[in-house]
């Protein structure tokens, strides 16, 4: 089981001055200017607009927008959904990475590809499939109705759709790392008499802690912010099945822009915290490059791996 | 050796393979595979003629044309500007570079609904940028350019993050060799650098495109959602569901999913070919 995944130490900056492999100063400035202008129009202006619009009516209007009971129930539902979806996907991620990362078996690459599937599915379709399964006209619809269980247009459907869209995040961070680290340390622990559970807790888990944290950060951000999938299964019952992004949509469509942007500003702050946490984990894990998490996009693109065909 | 290959799993002293794999397969099936299979079974049950009737209706064709067109333009914009961005981030140093590098992931971290209303606020008639564009007759919000804008926004990190490691791996010596052999900087770019990072460019394009054709949250606020004009495929699926047209939604969903999988497959093939070529040289 040769390690097929290479960890890439990121070269942060190239200090060596090599004039033959460099552009002229004017070209360099132009390219930097183009980059910054592009980011400004596409990224920074919209981000600034969220806070400007949220605070347009002063801090009082901002607080009023957030203090609404419907906003509160949206916050609570969002936190509830994330607190169910993230731990479930965390446990799955650990089980999958133990099986795939530490053992060599037939169908391993197929399993890896299947775990990636939700990345390739439109959020709207992620919601649709649950409607077709558990909705009133779905496979299990009549049975659920006779048992008086409601999944679609209720909280369980929102949780399921969120689990689907955040499904690969933890697994895809931890699997490549466990593969790369091999099994020697675990084998030594087992040989020295440790139980399987002790080995996992004391040897494996500390080795992958940064990648695990990284995956949880990404998973959590997506769980809190998911819109399309949740929108399809929620039914938009105000105060009952609205998450924060859905609440924003309702406020916005009612032309209550102040409140819509007030709630948005909270989510935008959360996104900035997510970016900061992500950068911090990247920095900390650089000190221990052995356990550095891989870039999620590289993972999503299978770039550092043998393709699973 | 023969005994080892005939087994499903290579023997190991580590415990827990059975439960770990069992749970993985169970959870994967329950959460992902069963629901996806349900949709395809439902779509198959529609019969070919009613499936085709849905897919070939003018409104669906218009939505597909718009979705693919806007996604392709967005992916091209992202590859172009993403290349410049990745290049400046890898090769140059400038004040605030670390912040810019971290900000690339913003579209990932920001909920799509928030991105959608933020972009609309900036580019609508009374927005910061829109107030200058609208009088000039250039409509962004509630028109196709707004859709391209939103899709460019959400696709950018895919291109930059795919290109950065490829550019970091480039060897200065090759560029110096090109220069010493009399190549201009532009020739070096076109003949040396771009071919070397072409697989990464293609992957970035495909990832950005694939994400764009499924995107919903950031588009619906800025697109205006006018049937035949600014209605994207994911929105049409939602509209059909809201009208209790489950058959139509299923047909449309299944067709969109097949296309997404085809793109994913192409990405894998591209990379497999690139990796093979890389190994040979």
How would you describe this protein?
The complex is a heterodimer of chains A (309) and B (281). Chain A is mainly α and 309 residues long. Chain A has one domain (54-300): MetI-like (MetI-like fold), CATH 1.10.3720.10. Helices cover 72% and strands 0% of the residues of chain A. Chain A has helices at residues 25-54, 58-67, 69-102, 108-120, 123-134, 141-146, 155-166, 168-181, 184-191, 196-207, 209-225, 228-234, 244-253, 257-287, 296-300. With 281 residues, chain B is an all-alpha fold. Chain B has a single domain, classed as MetI-like (MetI-like fold, Orthogonal Bundle), CATH 1.10.3720.10. Chain B contains 14 helices and no strands. The two termini of chain B are 32 Å apart. Classes of the chains: A mainly alpha (309), B mainly alpha (281). At the A-B interface, helix 1, helix 3, helix 4, helix 5 and helix 7 of A face helix 2, helix 4, helix 5, helix 6 and helix 7 of B.
Summarize the structure.
The complex is a heterodimer of chains A (309) and B (281). Helix content of chain A is 72%, strand content 0%. With 309 residues, chain A is an all-alpha fold.
Q: What fold name stands as the CATH topology of chain A? A: MetI-like fold
Rounded to the nearest angstrom, the distance between the terminal CA atoms of chain A is 18 Å
Residue stretches of chain A low in confidence (pLDDT < 50, at least 5 long) are 1-9, 11-15, 302-309
CATH superfamily of chain B: MetI-like
Binned strand content of chain A: under 5%
Give a quick account of the main beta sheet of chain B: strands, pairing sense, barrel closure.
none
The tally of structural domains of chain A comes to: 1
Largest sheet of chain A: none
Q: CATH class of chain A, please?
A: Mainly Alpha
- The CATH architecture of chain B can be given as Orthogonal Bundle
Q: How many DSSP H or I helices of chain B? A: 14
Largest interface, counted by CB within 8 Å of the partner chain's CB: A-B, 116 and 107 residues
As an assembly, this protein is heterodimer
> What is the string of SSEs of chain B from the N terminus onward?
HHHHHHHHHHHHHH
Helical proportion of chain A, percent range? over 70%
Cα-atom Rg of chain B, whole angstroms? Answer: 23 Å
The CATH class of chain B is identified as: Mainly Alpha
């Amino acid at each position: 089981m040769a390690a097929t995944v290479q960890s890439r130490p990121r070269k942060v900056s190239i200090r060596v001055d090599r004039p033959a492999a460099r552009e002229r100063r004017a070209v360099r400035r132009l390219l930097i200017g183009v980059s910054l202008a592009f980011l400004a129009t596409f990224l920074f202006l919209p981000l600034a607009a969220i806070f400007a619009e949220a605070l347009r009516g002063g801090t009082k209007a901002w607080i009023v927008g957030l203090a609404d009971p419907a906003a509160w129930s949206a916050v609570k539902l969002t936190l509830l959904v994330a607190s169910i979806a993230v731990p479930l996907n965390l446990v799955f991620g650990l089980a999958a990475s133990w099986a795939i990362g530490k053992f060599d078996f037939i169908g391993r690459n197929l399993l890896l590809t299947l775990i990636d599937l939700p990345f390739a599915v439109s959020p709207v379709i992620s919601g649709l499939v649950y409607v077709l399964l558990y909705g009133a006209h779905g496979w299990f619809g009549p049975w659920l109705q006779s048992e008086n269980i409601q999944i679609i247009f209720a909280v369980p459907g929102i949780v399921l759709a969120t689990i689907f869209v955040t499904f690969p995040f933890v697994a895809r961070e931890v699997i490549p790392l466990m593969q790369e680290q091999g099994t020697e340390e675990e084998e030594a622990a087992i040989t020295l008499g440790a139980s399987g559970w002790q080995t996992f807790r004391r040897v494996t888990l500390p080795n992958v802690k940064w990648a695990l944290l990284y995956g949880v950060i990404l998973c959590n951000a997506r769980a809190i912010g998911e819109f399309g999938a949740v929108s399809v299964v929620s039914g938009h019952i105000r105060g009952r099945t609205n998450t924060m992004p859905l609440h924003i949509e309702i406020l916005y469509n009612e032309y209550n822009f102040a409140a819509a942007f007030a709630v948005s500003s909270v989510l935008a702050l959360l996104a900035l915290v997510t970016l900061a946490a992500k950068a911090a984990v990247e920095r900390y894990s650089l000190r221990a490059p052995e356990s550095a998490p891989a870039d999620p996009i590289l993972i999503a693109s299978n770039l550092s791996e043998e393709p699973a065909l | 050796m023969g005994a080892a290959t005939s087994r499903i799993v290579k023997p190991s002293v580590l415990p827990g393979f059975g439960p770990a794999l069992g749970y993985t397969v169970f959870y994967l099936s329950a959460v992902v595979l069963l629901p996806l299979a349900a949709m395809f079974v439902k779509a198959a049950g529609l019969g070919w003629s009613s499936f085709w009737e849905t897919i070939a209706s003018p409104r669906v064709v218009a939505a597909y044309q718009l979705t693919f067109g806007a996604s392709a333009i967005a992916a091209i914009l992202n590859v172009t500007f993403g290349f410049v961005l990745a290049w400046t981030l890898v090769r140059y140093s400038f004040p605030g570079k670390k912040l810019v590098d971290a900000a690339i992931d913003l579209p990932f971290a920001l909920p799509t609904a928030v991105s959608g209303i933020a972009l609309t606020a900036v580019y609508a008639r009374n927005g910061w940028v829109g107030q200058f564009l609208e009088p000039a007759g250039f409509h962004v919000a509630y028109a196709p350019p707004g859709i391209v804008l939103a899709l460019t926004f959400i696709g950018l990190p895919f291109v930059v993050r795919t290109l950065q490691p490829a550019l970091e791996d480039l060897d200065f010596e090759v560029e110096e060799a090109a220069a010493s052999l009399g190549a201009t900087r532009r020739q070096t770019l076109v003949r040396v650098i771009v071919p070397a990072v072409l697989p990464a460019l293609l992957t970035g394009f495909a990832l950005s495109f694939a994400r764009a054709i499924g995107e919903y949250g950031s588009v619906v606020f800025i697109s205006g959602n006018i049937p035949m004009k600014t209605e994207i495929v994911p929105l049409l699926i939602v509209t059909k569901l809201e009208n209790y047209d489950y058959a139509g939604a299923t047909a449309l969903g299944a067709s969109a999913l097949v296309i997404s999988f085809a793109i994913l497959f192409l990405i894998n093939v591209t990379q497999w070919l690139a990796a093979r070529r890389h190994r040979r040289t």
